[in-house]
Amino acid sequence: MKNILVAFFVLATLGAAAQSPAEFKEVKHTFGKIKQNVPASYVFTFKNVSGKALVVESAVAGCGCTTPEYPKAPIAKGKTGTIKVTYNAANPGNFTKDVTVKFVGTQLPTVLTIDGEVLTGGDKPADAKPTETKKVVKVPVKD
């Protein structure tokens, strides 16, 4: 019985240590089809669910085409914060980019993901309607 109690205590302690002090509304955002060379941004929102002020230690993008912006001031207990992620959309094609967010005092980071497809100027989404329609008028011809 003593071994069971010790095992339960160890598992409960590990579970509490692995919990994030921030609760994100979502950790992935899909832009869908976006225009080339028009930066696309999304704001991820999180709530401080810890018992003390929460500080974002870092938010690091996997490449230079993605820029994260995060609060430098502590987020009070129970309050919300945001992390804005901007993708520069320079290269056409599908993309998936990650931003790794680390909070002070936690071991495991949170990974935020954005994805979508960058269309070149001539590309149009499959569901796009033509921008111009031509009306054909038949005129009877007399012989």
Secondary-structure map:
Layout: H1 2-18, E1 22-24, E2 28-35, E3 40-48, E4 56-61, E5 66-69, E6 80-87, E7 93-103, E8 110-119
Parallel strand pairs: 2-8
Antiparallel strand pairs: 1-3, 3-6, 4-7, 5-6, 7-8
Write the CATH homologous superfamily of the domain at 24-119: Immunoglobulins
How far the N terminus sits from the C terminus, by CA atoms, comes to 108 Å
Secondary-structure-derived class: mainly beta
DSSP E strands, number: 8
Mean pLDDT across the residues is 82
Q: What is the helix fraction of residues, given as a range?
A: 10-25%
Count of helix runs: 1
**Tell me about the biggest sheet?**
4 strands, antiparallel
CATH topology of the domain at 24-119: Immunoglobulin-like
Rg for CA atoms = 25 Å
Q: How much beta, percentage-wise?
A: 35-45%
CATH architect. name of the domain at 24-119: Sandwich
User: What would CATH call the class of the domain at 24-119?
Assistant: Mainly Beta
Gross morphology is elongated
